[in-house]
Amino acid sequence: MSEPTSANTPKPSSSVKLVLLGEAAVGKSSLVLRFVNNDFQENKEPTIGAAFLTQKCSLPTRTIKFEIWDTAGQERFASLAPMYYRNAQAALVVYDVTKPSSLTKAKHWVAELQRQASPGIVIALVGNKLDLTNDASNEAAGEPTSTEGGEDEATNDAGDENQAEEATPGDARKVSTQEANAYAEEESLLFFETSAKTGVNVADVFTAIANAIPESSLKTGRGAGTGQTTFGGGRPAEDTRVNLGERATATPKEGCAC
Amino acid sequence: MESLAETPWDVTISGTGLGQSLLALALSRSDKKVLHIDKCPYYGGSEAAFSLQEAQEWADNVNKEPGQSPFEDAEVHSPSDSRLSSSRAYTLSLSPHLIYSRSRLLPTLLSSKVYRQLEFQAVGSWWIFGPSEANSNLYRVPSSREDIFADDFISAKSKRTLMKFLRHIGKPPRETEGQSEEEDLSVPFSEYLSSKFQVPAELHDPLLSLSLSQASAQQTSAEYAVPRIKRHLASIGVFGPGFGSLLAKWGGGSELAQVGCRALAVGGGVYVLNAGIESIASPSNSENGDDARMQIKLSNGESIRTKFVVGSHWDLPGQAGNDQPSCEKAARSISVVSSSLESLFPITAEGGPLPAGAVVVFPGSSLGQAEDSPPVYLLIHSSETGECPTGQSVIYGSVRLSGPQGYSLLETAIQKLLESVGDAEAKVLWSLRYTQLGRVGDVIDAAQALKSSSPSESMICFPPLSLDHAFDDALLDMVKEAWKIVQGEEAIDEEFMKFEDREGVEDE
């Protein structure tokens, strides 16, 4: 790619379609609310209908604009999911660390995504409601444990050892970090434990996803040197998007052809 | 949330095709309780988009259950070729329509705010396959004054006649009205061009291609062709230089349908796939007035009650009283090709976007057929559309001739195209052919068309979709009519599809 190099060139910006999946009441909408508005609502009503939100995530080399699709409220029919994960570049599969059945459901979603979604989809497994566990006060347990290679995983082993199966009193945790992490590793998923309530790790999930999206799925261009005739000279080859919003400034001429 | 059976539904939309999904969008901000179902496990109905495997399953179903969809006689041909990628690397569309920049669909997508979820790309060049003149049989149809000046194929004399014709039809309607009273548009397009403008015969087919007419110049009336050529010319430059029509990335009509459904889901509509309508029973006599609801039995065993039901002929059960609508047939094909066919997608004007679509027209005569036999249209989508891997492209073929003759013309046209693009490696890696049923000709009165195809006031049935290659604006009119019926007194014409942005969606 021969990107025009100018000191003042803004960082390239790409849209990433992200779908949220998971059992009802695991906190999908709350995670998004925390990420987008840095807000949390106690005893939030189940979402009526689905939701669509956007949020930018700034990386050192580029800006990712997440288009977040929340299937909330309609998990029962599982009918929104196929529409949502079609062409999605990322999926956030959420379970509740206090509810083992929600991890089982999450595994079903992961299997379905692997079977049906775009081949390169980045999947993050997220155990939410960390605030209900004893780890809530223990930042170390909430460290991201990415299974994608090349990341710093130094803290993980020690952290995992602490997640004994025996829960201490007052700890509502029913799904151990170790179990979920092992599963995530097996399936090559990103893995985080979060609390939408306290905000622990929430932004990290989205940043990790943004980093994990392969460059190739952000740029669908033909690449350089394919003999493309260009009139503009030096314009990026991937520029195929037509902006409808520019209509007003496009100064259409009536019967402009002649 | 109440169960499906307990909810007193206002509207049940059956099928997630383009018409139903646009209605879903229209109702997405109403306070109606809407249930949106589809008998298929996927969205999009007859405008769906498929992976290779899904396309194979779809073809099997079309043949297994004739009469259940506006399709017949589907067949996948998959010669084993290692260059074919995995099934899900493809999104092959049953509705690769192009959308003219002047189509009312685009302002509708803008005012309803869903355009942000769509990505549009330019359809650049129109090519016509002509009798062999030079090394290439493909001739780029000039569609602007600049194009005509730059053209070195047309003689100076022909250029003058062509300019005269284009100037004539490029005039704003008001200016021409006085003269046009004498203009006889009922004659064949070829005669109109020769007698009125002395446009030489070799330019008839190129001009006709701009109308997307699926009949020959002799068989197309000027009445049909002229307004469509006007549409083509008036659309150029609206959204950028050098192009006048668009395609929706990731599967055309399928994406539009899904965007409509998502909007309604966000608005509280409930979606259930794999659930078709088995039977409809009228409201019992004891129920009267506003609460009267018909009883609908779904194929998933559930039973629901609804005031209105909306669908197409193929989404409502036979006993609803709507007979098989009268349809025309077209042979269609989808071919995955092992070449980017790059030469078909030049940037057509300085500063214009890289086109992702192109149109190639084969007049009947170029395929060894009679002069007045119908042309073959090939809509070519580059890998930029996200429909196939880089280095490949997808060819959507169509000819208004059903049966083996239609299929064989499509095949010949594709072979000729591949031979002429100068890529020796260009081969068809995978193809699907099928016959599509649909409407031909224009809907003049949408309200009337919808009424006559609907079994009753509360059972609304969309007429079959147009077989046109461009999005048919009449569909929007019919959606609006359906919306008006459902909204009843609450319907305010000016509010159709006009929405504010939802919270959490920032402006660009």
UniProtKB/TrEMBL annotation, chain A:
Keywords, sorted A to Z: Nucleotide-binding
Q: In which domain of life is the source organism classified? A: Eukaryota
Q: Where is the composition biased (Gly residues)?
A: 222-235
- Alphabetized InterPro entries for the sequence: P-loop_NTPase (IPR027417), Small_GTP-bd (IPR005225), Small_GTPase (IPR001806)
- UniProt xrefs under CDD domains: Rab5_related (cd01860)
Region entry Disordered: which residue ranges? 135-180, 220-240
Q: Name one GO molecular function term.
A: GTPase activity
Per UniProt, the ranges with Acidic residues bias are 149-164
- Alphabetical list of NCBIfam families matching this protein: small_GTP (TIGR00231)
Spell out the protein name for this chain: Vacuolar protein sorting-associated protein 21
According to the entry, what is the taxonomic lineage of the organism? Answer: Eukaryota, Fungi, Dikarya, Ascomycota, Pezizomycotina
UniProtKB/TrEMBL annotation, chain B:
Region annotation (Disordered) maps to 62-83
Print the organism lineage. Eukaryota, Fungi, Dikarya, Ascomycota, Pezizomycotina
| UniProt protein name | Rab proteins geranylgeranyltransferase
In its UniProt entry, the species of origin is given as Aspergillus cristatus (Chinese Fuzhuan brick tea-fermentation fungus)
Please list the GO terms describing molecular function.
GDP-dissociation inhibitor activity
The domain of life is Eukaryota
Q: Which Pfam families match?
A: GDI
Q: Cellular component GO terms, alphabetically?
A: cytosol; nucleus; Rab-protein geranylgeranyltransferase complex
Recorded family membership:
Belongs to the Rab GDI family.
Would you kindly state one Gene Ontology biological process term found in this protein's UniProt entry?
small GTPase-mediated signal transduction
Query: InterPro entries, alphabetically?
Result: FAD/NAD-bd_sf, GDP_dissociation_inhibitor, Mrs6
Mark the transmembrane ranges.
Answer: none
